[in-house]
Write a structure and sequence with these properties.
124 residues; single chain; 7-stranded mixed β-sheet; alpha+beta; 26% helix
Length: 124
């Protein structure tokens, strides 16, 4: 499930939050996983995808990467809201898409994703 939020409302409500953000690598650059909030209305990517679950974000990033021809690598990073705000500004994004799913309860409550990875949450 994906819930869309205007960036400023999301940041106001989640000032101290931490979320997983997916990144993809093209031949020349790394970039965050972003999407169109409304394909019928929007001409460019405008929404950053985040999740409270490392596993859910990892699955979404890998699924997207398999559909994009020049993606060489993927990575999921655990970021604080201030870092997410920086990504939003750098890439000119306007909304946040919070990805939730069956894994959401396993992360954040216990202080990490519970796996041996390099996401930055302290689990690995």
């Amino acid at each position: 499930m994906i819930d869309f939020h205007p960036a400023q409302e999301f940041f106001h409500a989640n000032r101290n939050g931490k979320y997983y953000v997916g990144f993809l690598k093209s031949p020349n650059v790394w970039f965050p996983l972003a999407m169109l909030s409304d394909p019928a209305e929007k001409q460019r990517l405008d929404t950053l995808c985040v999740s409270r679950s490392c596993q859910a974000m990892t699955e979404v990033v890998k699924c997207c990467a398999s559909r994009i021809e020049d993606v060489e690598q993927t990575f999921v990073q655990f970021l604080v809201v201030a870092e997410i705000e920086g990504l939003m500004e750098r890439y000119g994004l306007e909304q946040i898409a919070v990805i939730s799913g069956e894994y959401e309860g396993e992360s954040m409550g216990g202080g990490g994703c519970g796996s041996d990875c390099a996401c930055g949450c302290g689990c690995g």
